[in-house]
Queue: 4 jobs
Job 1
Amino acid sequence: MSGSILKRAVVSKFTLAFFHDSGWYDVDMSQAEPLTWGQNLGCDFVLKSCYEYMEIQKRGVRNATTSPWCNESVRATEVTPSTDCSDAKNQVFLDRTVNNELQHYGSDSICINHDPNTAWLSSWRSKVTTFPTIRATCHKVSYQAT
């Protein structure tokens, strides 16, 4: 299972196996989704700390990436958006992605909750995309006196 704010969360085979082994759950393994985070990064990625993994990468092959970890502490604090629609800082994160939901963050935004039993649908140029994990979105609102 993966935590997620801007990306789609995943329930992996590992998570379902953990639930099954706890003895509290019956699981359907066919419902597991691929979890590619950390894929093919080797034992050091799993067994070492984040810092050790980055140091190994930096000492190894020239120009080796420390991905998925960053090596700047400032960047680590900058990449965590909140779930508050009125927090204008979130717009920076949204501007870095494709804004399929036409969301807007700021003091002029409100949170819209969606039916948890119905997937969000987006249609563009005759192509329909389903977003089953979207449960709430932030949208700009303006009020007019009548």
Job 2
Amino acid sequence: MRARLDGLKNRLRAKDDELGRKSLEMEGLARSFREAKAENKRLQAELDAGSMAKAKIDRLKAEQAKERGHSAVLTDYYNMTEPQMEALRQEVGRREAKAQRLAREAARMAASAKTACRTLRLALNDMGAKARGVLGENASVLEFCEWNQEAGCAVSNCAAAYGDCCARVSAAFALGLLQQHRCEHVAQFPTLRRGTGKQRRRIKAKNPQKRAEVEPKATQRCEALRPKNEKFTAVKNLPKARYLLRPVYCEMTINGHNYKVVNVANWMRTHPGRTLEDYDRVHVARLEGMARFWRNHRRTNRQEAIAQRRYSLSLCGCQNGKLRRRHPGRTLEDYDRCHIQRREDIATLWLDFEMTNSQAAIA
């Protein structure tokens, strides 16, 4: 009996030892499980941080690609503008050279007009005609040309009236000087004379009343050289000249939007006190209103009802399990939020498309 009790005690002691060993193993497994769980949490945190870093890297890559696109556009714009600026600089150089040449020609013309004026005044004094309204040194070239024309007509009249050798020599000298200085309207004077000296004396002897017609005054304009309405006749049949007053830069950029300079100038003229930012804000608001109007009125009532019906049916289908199968853990509010966000993105893309088309039409 005692041996049997000792065997039972030994078995109980072995069982107690085994239970102690099992408890120690359970404690080791629990400790390992806690460590594994902590490691899992740490790895999950690192994974979340890596996901956030990856999303940030993707966003930075997208921004970098966008900036690279902007840089390429600006580079192309500057490369395209540089030849235009060079052409404008060359055009300005040519215009300056032409202006200098015209200034030199105007100075030479003024000097020649003054010389012709002095010569004609001396010729009139030699022929005994009193020269009135002599111009000073500060007179313009146009005034000198007008006075030279009047004096040339007076010299021609004096030569036609006197008919002597001295007058003819003086008239020939004056007419040659005028013709040399591009006064071509007196080149036909010898063919417009009213007969010889004997014919004029015969007319005076027969009818003294025609003396005024034969001997015009020295200060009177010779109508044979220039008709009364010559300027109106010359200008009447000329084509109309139209000068296109266009600015050098046909477009300007305000806050990233291109506008015509003429349209901006007209708007600023009709709205005094406003700025370029006001024009850009008003124009963008008008374009957005137009795009919103066409976007809201593009669908008919029947099409809108069909779209609403399809949307409600899709919600019902999602309630039956489609949402749970495709996106487990999401709710109907999440689906509605995603659907509204997608519609807003489509509306934004459509607005950008409408604004791009409007700017292209304006350009």
Job 3
Amino acid sequence: MVLKAPSSDSAVSQCPWRAVSICNSRRSTSHHKKLRTSSEPSRYACKGSPKPQFRLLAFCAHGVLTLRPLLAPGEMQNHPNETLFKADIAARCAINAVLRPKEDLHIATLSEMFVESQLERMRQFMMQEEEGREILKQRPLFDDRFIDYEGLRRLPENTLGYALMKFLDGNSLHAGHRQPVRFVEDEELAYILTRYRQLHDVMHAAFGMGISVESEVALKLIEFHQTGLPMTLLSAAFGPFAAPLLRVQLSAAATDVALAGGGPAAVASVTHSLTEAPNSWLQLLTSQKEKHPAASATPAATPAKTEDEQGPVVLYPRQVLLNDLLPWADAAGKAMRRRVYCLFVEEWLDKPLDAFREHCCIMLPPAHLLPYCA
């Protein structure tokens, strides 16, 4: 009902999770060769400094915030100092993942560094189950080439497919926009990593988690219990540093045009500053107090405030993540009895979401954590 027939294109059917990365990486490799053969001086060179360590320091300072074009699959084994090369990329991606948590390229690249042993372990888990063996045989892809997204939107509201599309549409996401695998040489292991990435949105829908930093970090800890990938543990360990100390959820009165200062652009700027600047919420609280002065001292004369008249809700994502969300995620990951990447999730899309949760023993977050998971 919601599945499509696989494409007959040979280039895609042979290794579809490699097709995009091979094309992009070949262009990147030719670009590197052109740079190496050029007679122009390197832009990373530190002018006026004859010491090579200074030139290396200048190169690393530039490389920390700039991810160079990546090698094509198959060239990693022939690259000199393969371990050092991977360590260099892993270090830069780890820093960028903390500085730019909304960019998935850095986290995706970091997940491919030194993961062969864990991917082999995931393959063994799949080979132990009948569904897992069938998945490795068919190698289905969870993207628009195999999934009918319009069909998912027409499903009943209590189904897994409808919940998935509600999550994707509500956050302007697309399940097929996942980074291709570049650094895993074995094709079957590369497919296993690709399937894990493509089912990440299904985990969001199943656990009812949003795309906030604290939600992503908590979900990574659950995925660590599922996969054992080092990147998931690193994300859970260092992700709290990327979580904001403070977040203010504006009420309907706070987003009023007159209160915000003139128009929709002003409303957007206030909302953005509250997200980025921890101290700017004081200005909003002050303006709220001036806009709505204190009521009479007589309790009986004070009318009950509606939900729209309530002041802004102040959340503390980092504190709650460390004290509540991560302990819940650790317990939820241990409670799961089925590995999602070993399941034919495609066959569950038109089935009730509660049935899928019961089948996998999914433990939902408690009610007091829902504002941080939305």
Job 4
Amino acid sequence: MKTAAKMAPDSFRNDPVESLPGSSEFGMSDDPEQFSEIYKDLAELVGVGNARKIWKVYAGLNITFPQRLYSREYTRTFIAKNYQDKSPRELAKATGLSERRVRQIIREIKSETKE
């Protein structure tokens, strides 16, 4: 399975925007309203140039984005650093976890520090 890190260039920011070969000489539009729906949405979100870069790297692939942005390890570390200053409700909102799950993690952290 290819990962994005292996497939994508080092940075989208540093790459020039490229069109389809010959598209500019034939007058292909850079108007996002002429793009397919997903690319229209991307162009609105990240700009036409970046939408073209994403298209160039990922065209034809089916991509599923996890609901979780941060890793479990980072989330746990974040909770460990902040549970004494913030309520479980605030931590749940910040991490996207339920309050119940935040309380479970806090209990786990407290029991690990006792050992």
